Every structure is written in C-alpha cells, then in structure tokens.
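The following record pairs a protein chain with its ligand, 3-isopropylmalic acid.
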Amino acid sequence: MKKKSSQGNRNYKIAVMGGDGTGPEVTAEALKVLTASSKKNGFKLDLTHLDYGGERYLKTGVVLTDKEMAGMKKFDAILLGAVGHPDVKPGIIEKGLLLKTRFGLEQYINLRPVKLYPGVWTPLKDKGPEDIDFVVVRENNEGLYVGEGSFKNKGTKREVATQISRNTYKGVERCLRYAFELTRKRNKRKKLTLCGKTNVLTYAWDLWWRVFQDMAKEYPDVTTDYTHVDATCMWMVKNPEWFDVIVTDNMFGDIITDLGAMIQGGMGIAAGGNINPQGVSMFEPIGGSAPKYTGKNVINPLAAICAAAMMMDHLGETEAAQEIERSVMNVTAHKLKSLSAGKMGYGTREVGDLVAEQLMERSAR
Ligand code: IPM
Ligand code: MN
C-alpha cells in the first residue's frame, strides 16, 4: 500500500498547499518538524509551494484548473493546510479545490485515525488512551459527494430537491479491500466494523453489505461487525474501545470523524489522509481554516504535524513517522496545557519548536 519516492533515493517531491486562514501557519510548523526529521533520518524533501486557495481565487477568479490538478500528479504527495475563506461563498473553494483534488486524483480513501494521546483531555469520562485508538476508513470518491441531483419546480412551493448517493461495485470493493488490509496490517484487535444504514438506505447499503460479507471470507483472521451509523455514534461515545477499524461511506464518514476528532481531543490534533494507493495522496489536518485565529500564533499545529507524519508513513518512512508521532505524544503528555487554540500555554510556532526539539533530542540518544 506504500507509495515510494518517484526518484528513488528517498528524495520526496512534495506539493505544499498552505491554503486559507490558519492553513499556512500550521503547515509551516509541519514543515519545520519534517525538516528536522529529514536531517535525522536521512531523507530529502523537494518542496513546491502552491498558492491555491481563497486568496488566489479572490484575485484571479481561479480555484483550480484541470491542468493544475493534473500537474499535481507529478508529486509524491501533497501536504494541505486548510481551505475555506471568509470572503468567499461557502462551497466554492471546498468543492473546487478540496473535493476536485480528492476526486480528480482518485484519492478514494479518506483515512482518519482517532487516537487519544497521553495528557490530552477527552470529554469522555473514564476513558483514556488505551480506550480510544481506532481508525476510520471513509470512502472518499462516491456517495452523496458525487454532486448528482436536481431541482424540480425550483423556488415554488412544489419544489423538490433530489441529491443522489452513488455507490458503485468498484468503489465499494476497493474501499472495503483497503479496510480489510489495513485491519490485518494494524494487527491490533483485528476487528473491522462496517458502519452503514442497511435498515433504511436499502439500495446503497445492500451493496455495501453484500460485498463486505463476501470479502470477509477472504480474511478469516479479521473479525467483522456491523453497526448502523446512529448506533456507531452512540458506541463511539459510550464504548470507543470496541472499535479497531471502522469502514463507511463518504457522508457518514464525514460526520463520524468530527465526532471522532472531539473524543481524541479536538480539531487541534485530528489528522487525515486522502489516499490513492496507486497514485498521489494528500494529507491534511481535518479541521477548517479557522479565520478568527489567523495570524495570531494561537492555532494548534499538531494536527498538521500529525498529517505530515501520516504522509511520511505513506511514503515508506515508517520510522520517521513513528518518531514524529512519539515526539507529539511527548509534547501532549508533558508540555501543553490544552489542545485548544489560545489555551495551549504556548504559541503555534513554539509548539512546532517543541516537537522539533523532541525529535532532535531523540536523535542525540
Ligand atoms: C472534511 C470536510 C470536507 C468534507 C468539506 C470541507 C468539503 O468537512 O474534510 O471532512 O465534507 O469532506
Ligand atoms: Mn468534515
């Protein structure tokens, strides 16, 4: 499942898209940590900064051309900060940049770990890091996100708005395949939970369910389980320790991973990857551009740093990735007062410094 450097020699061509709001600030801290990691681990980073986002759109009217999107195929991976600009109508950048890249580069998996690090506050009483450690595999190219639908009698009292959830055998199969393989590779509880709504969405989830059942036969070592999406939310709060890997569709995955982010300590720490196992993947903090915190040195960069760690893991630099994660864990356990913006006890840049210092200290030992 790993993507290696296109040039060999552990020289990685990375497109860096800081994006909007606090995106560039958190991305800068992720790059600070990556630079430290590259020195220590002996890989090289060939960075190309792309100015795509709300600012450029306001100046030029361009969100992302097809050519620019195709141009991103030449990189080994993409590191994204955040999209969404307060002066741009909601949806334009999100659809035109983020979703266009996810779909255009066929990043059909959205991988979102939900892991409570030591020292991090969770709103779940009596739950600790040993209870909250699972991964959500969200289908990333289909479902309600395909943008199919129609209005009838728009603007009248007889209006009907339809929004289609498209689920193809190919799309469902490759998503489930990835999830089964990941469950095996994680080698934790080896349990894969399908999260759906078979009792109401009887076409879409019938397909998912059938493919899931069939594929399970190929993985006798993986325990399979099914929960409806509403119940999944309930168990994520009450018994998060039941989960190891959850696989679900695009819309449900969007919703349950915000809940997941909250139980792991908030948007300041939640990272994700948009993965094309055969192509170019894009890694991002899952929170938004937080315009009100922009330029104040208060936003938490840990999610962006964790996204960078996921990127290095994906590129085959497993040791570097684990080391970044351990450094983050050390900082959450011993330094930060809170993971919330403005309440960390340190500024954005200082948190980046702390993680980078941790990393270098480890190298001295
Ligand atoms: C996410 C975001 C996006 C999504 C938006 C910004 C289009 O909420 O990455 O979860 O819905 O996928
Ligand atoms: Mn979301």
